[in-house]
Amino acid sequence: MSTTAALGGAEPRDVESRDVSVTVFADRNAAYYGSVFERLQKGELPFWHMNLAGLLIPWVWSAWRGVWLMFWVSLALDMVGLVCLMQNFKYGPLLADAHLDPSANAILIERYTRWLGVYNNVGVATLILGRLLIGLQANRWYFRQYSKWRIDGHTAHGVMARRVAIAVLILVLVAPITLYRATQQRIDERACFNQVRAIDGTQRLLSRYGVTEVSDLTSAMNDQRDRLVTEKATLEASASLTDDQKGRLSEIRREVRQLRRENDAVEDFKAVSAKDRFDCLFIDDFPTLARIDPPEDVTYRRVPDEDAIAQGRSGATKVIRQVKDPVEGRTVNIFTYTAESIDIGINFLRAQYAGIFDALTNVLRQSLIRVEVAFMLTPWPVLVGLAMILAWAYCGTGTVVFVGSSLTFLAVFELWQIAMQTMALVVVATAICIFVGLPVGIWMAKNRIANWVTEPILDVMQTIPSLSYLVPAVAFFGISQPPAVLATVVFAIPPMVKLTALGIRQVPQSTKEAALAFGASERQLLTKVELPMAVPSIMAGLNQTIMLALSMATISAFIGAEGLGAIVTAALGDAQAGKGLLAGIAIALVAMVIDRILKGIRSSLSRI
Amino acid sequence: MSVVEVDGVWKIFGDKADEAIAAVRNEGLGKPEVLDRFGAIIGVKDASFTVEEGEIFCLMGLSGSGKSTLVRHINRLIEPTTGTIRILGEDIGAMTPEVLRALRAEKIGMVFQNMALLPHRSVRDNIGFALELRGKDAYHRAQLADHALETVSLHGYGDRLPSELSGGMQQRVGLARALAADPEILLMDEPFSALDPLIRRNLQDEFLGLSQNLRKTTIFITHDLDEAIRMGDRIGIMNDGEIVQIGTAEDIVTAPADDYVADFVAGISRLKLVSASKIMVAVENHVARHGPIDDAHDYPTARPEDDLDTLVELSTGTELPVLIRHDGNTVGIVTKDTLLHGLQGTESQ
Predict the structure, then answer these.
(1) Could A510 and B116 be called an inter-chain contact, meaning their C-beta atoms sit closer than 8 Å?
(2) Distance set, CA B17 to CA A446, B67, B81, B91 (Å)
């Protein structure tokens, strides 16, 4: 092959003249592609120009020439067409069944006939139009690849049988199973589970009866049943029974019932065909049908410690561990197993470190109460006046009007006090976000490992649905405001951290170098150069944090936090659209007032 | 004692720096081989020079020749791989961080190509930055800063923000910041490269004037040979991390050390650089070729240190050669031929 000339990175390649390069690139049939490319460049190629190989054997052609995009597109188009046609095998038998009794199944017949008509039309159209598209585009895509190859010599070029082999492998892996799936009805959700149970049960029976063949097992079970039936008949035949005999009789009845169930399982097992197993393992859900014993059902409780109290330490407590008996024969999947283990872990932590959690809850509650009191006891004219003065000092007249009318809205609709509860929650949560987020952000900007660890955690915090961590928050901190504050912090802190880190990282290397050249220490560099220059970014983070905290108000109402969110949640429960909308608008207005004022302050800061 | 002594400094970036140095020393590897074998990049290769008090020493080279890297060794913004640097006789490699910071703040001022002013501080606070880092109070800071502003003729701009000033003014602020703490040494890293030619020329002149008054020991980096010749008492030319020649502008123009330097100086006007002594022909040789000097004519005369510009001036309007006289003796003769060859930089026959 003459492709060697094209290898070797940025080395000048001996392909400067077009004739040479097309020969190297196309390898086979270079004359044809040379003329096609030339006409394409001149704009002389008619739109109906078609590559016959692209039309007839697109998979082979594109793989052979390494035009992988075309390979995938043509494969996808052909598969879509064929899958549509395969519906004949899926609904055909159903239609035939329905035709057995046309009068009763008129609706079904009409429905299946319509579906099959649509599927067949779409399938045929996709196949034909798809092939036409590929045929028309083949040479144009090939030319694009050629242009790319001229820039980057590693681009696929030439012809290669190995690529065809790879394509065949892909086809073998993809096509049969996809087409087969298209011919099958959706599997009943329980079917696969029952299958596994039948198989497991039969395995257990096999080992219990000490046989290896299922036919042996059936006869062994039949023998057993016969014995029990005989014994039962004997007992029932006698006129009077002792208590022992009565007990034996009910035991036999139970055993017979058990035997019948087991027999059913074996019958089920026999009914499981290889096709059923295949369907369950390959075309339904991912085959995680593993069943394991559930974790030990443990609960941890904190109770008064009698021994310690007897020794004079009043109020002493200890954690006790209670284990419940496992439910007979209960097996769970991995998801349930892990979820239950987490529950137990949370339960343990809550009991073991009750003091810490209670103290934390208390601190949060106390600070919330203080802030809430500050907001609610300050007369509303004072707060409205303050907000309007801030708006006037940092923003324009428009903002003053907006702030004034928004706050009037709260006052007129008697939402003021409730809005102040929300504000208190937001203020406390934001304060925590600043005190935690700022140092973490600085650390993240300065330390590569910290960045590597923190980044994914922040991403999870931002994307995990807040309802899913409200439950553990309640477990640890009870209901009402304190867990709401923490949940809000989790939701609202990422922008604070990220934008602090971004702001510090954005300080130009040259500026930092200059500061060092004039004798700054690391600390001075941070306080006198990096942090001041990061202020606009940090303020943007603060703004976003506050907005997110406000939007959490509704969610945290689910765990009993008071404020505007509680009205929304209540309205949701009672289907009162008007109430919910008004409270929602109030939240939005509070958010916008804070946002506008902060933006004004920010722009006055970043006028540097 | 020299103010700045740089002795055998190597800087190699990469993990296997020591091995790379040994290989370069013993086997004479070039840049690409070192990169290939050790994954290391040669920043500075065995640089040694000294700068005397009050001298302006220019480091000249193309981008990537290692001049900025080298100058950052002088205040230890970059640690050398091997080699020593002494400032006022003290080895800065042995300094503790605290002493080093004091040195940077008090003894060395630095000016950067991209100014690197702090955008959130006023001009005055920018200039007082080094003083502030040393704990000087605000009052004295402002006094010194205003004084420095006057030095760079920016009186009255102290309360502006850097973004309100033009590029040239910003660089003056950069210079004022470097001068504010009255350091012994100025490091100037391509200070005027980012400015347009007219302002550049202005600032060059102004800096030369300033320099004559203040007599600061200066290391001046540039990629422009014209600038190096204008500014530098001596010039060091760098290529691929190595100082290939150190000398006065005239030395470098008349006797380039290698082809690289020769290429550089090829396009330089020699009028103001080359002196009569470099091109003149000894009297005997002249007499041997053209016959004796006729005392009856009124020959134009010049001194050996006069530049070619003066000689051109003297030669116009007369057919006679110029006599070069020193202490009342004629030490050489410059004919028109000699002069033209001298201007061209070629040897006369």
Answers:
(1) yes
(2) 26, 19, 7, 22
Q: How many CB pairs under 8 A join A and B?
A: 63
pLDDT-derived band of residue A9, with 50, 70 and 90 as boundaries? very low
Instruction: Supply the pLDDT for residue B60.
Output: 93
The two structure tokens encoding residue B92? 């800065």
Locate B176 and state its tokens. Answer: 């004022």
Nearest CA in chain A to B126: A515
* Cα–Cα distance, B92 to B81 (Å, whole number): 14
Q: How many Å is the maximal CA-CA distance in chain A?
A: 113
B118/A508 touch (CB, cutoff 8 Å), yes or no: no
Nearest Cα of chain B lies from the Cα of A351 at a distance, in angstroms, of 51
User: For residue A606, what pLDDT is reported?
Assistant: 65
Q: Which residues pair with A304 in a beta bridge?
A: A317
Residue among A305, A340, A336 at smallest CA distance from A324: A340
Q: Are B255 and B80 in contact (CB under 8 A)?
A: no
Q: List strands edge to edge, sheet with B82-87.
A: B41-51, B4-13, B82-87, B90-91
3-state secondary structure of B16: coil
Q: How far apart are CA A543 and CA A594, in angstroms?
A: 8
**Do residues B6 and B44 touch, judged by C-beta distance below 8 A?**
no
Residue A69, pLDDT > 80, answer yes
Q: Which amino acid is at A473?
A: A
Q: How many angstroms separate the CA atoms of A385 and A380, rounded?
A: 8
B263: distance to nearest CA of chain A, Å? Answer: 27
For residue A519, give the nearest of B116, B120, B133 by CB distance: B133
Adjacent-strand bridge partners of B185 = B108, B217
What is the 3-state secondary structure of B156-210?
CCCCCCHHHCCHHHHHHHHHHHHHHCCCCEEEEECCCCCCCHHHHHHHHHHHHHH
What integer pLDDT is reported at residue B316 of this predicted model? 86
Q: Cβ contact (<8 Å) for A518 and B104?
A: yes
**Could you give the C-alpha distances from A432 to A361, A429, A526, B95, in angstroms and in order?**
14, 5, 22, 42
The one-letter code for the residue type at A134 is: I
How far, in Å, CA of A102 to CA of A500, rounded?
72
| Closest-CA residue to B49 (of B109, B3, B106) | B3
User: For residue A202, how many C-alpha atoms fall within 13 Å in the half-sphere facing its CB?
Assistant: 23
Q: What does the pLDDT look like over B262-288, one tens digit per residue?
A: 888 887 888 888 888 888 888 888 888
Q: Which of A54, A8, A45, A5 is nearest to A27 (CA)?
A: A5
* Predicted TM-score of the model (pTM): 0.77
Euclidean distance between CA atoms B38 and B16, whole angstroms: 6
A507 in Cβ contact with A530 (< 8 Å): yes
Percent of chain B with pLDDT over 90: 48
The DSSP output letter for A5 is G
Kindly provide the ipTM of the predicted complex, given to two decimals.
0.87
Looking at the DSSP assignment, which residues form a beta bridge with residue B56?
A: B218
Burial class (CB in 10 A: 0-12, 13-18, 19+), A349: middle
What is the structure's pLDDT at A290?
Answer: 67
The pLDDT score that the predictor gives to residue B174 is 94
Angle, vertex CA B309, rays to CA B304 and CA B310, nearest 5: 55
| Whether B120 and A520 lie within 8 Å, measured CB to CB | no
| Residue A5: per-residue pLDDT | 42
Helix (H) or strand (E) holding A103: none
Residues of chain B below pLDDT 70: 296, 347-349
- Whether A515 and B97 lie within 8 Å, measured CB to CB: no
Q: Answer yes or no: do B101 and A533 touch at CB < 8 A.
A: no
The helix-helix angle for A58-65 and A68-99 (nearest 10°) equals 160
Using CA atoms, how far apart are residues B220 and B235, in angstroms rounded to an integer?
A: 9
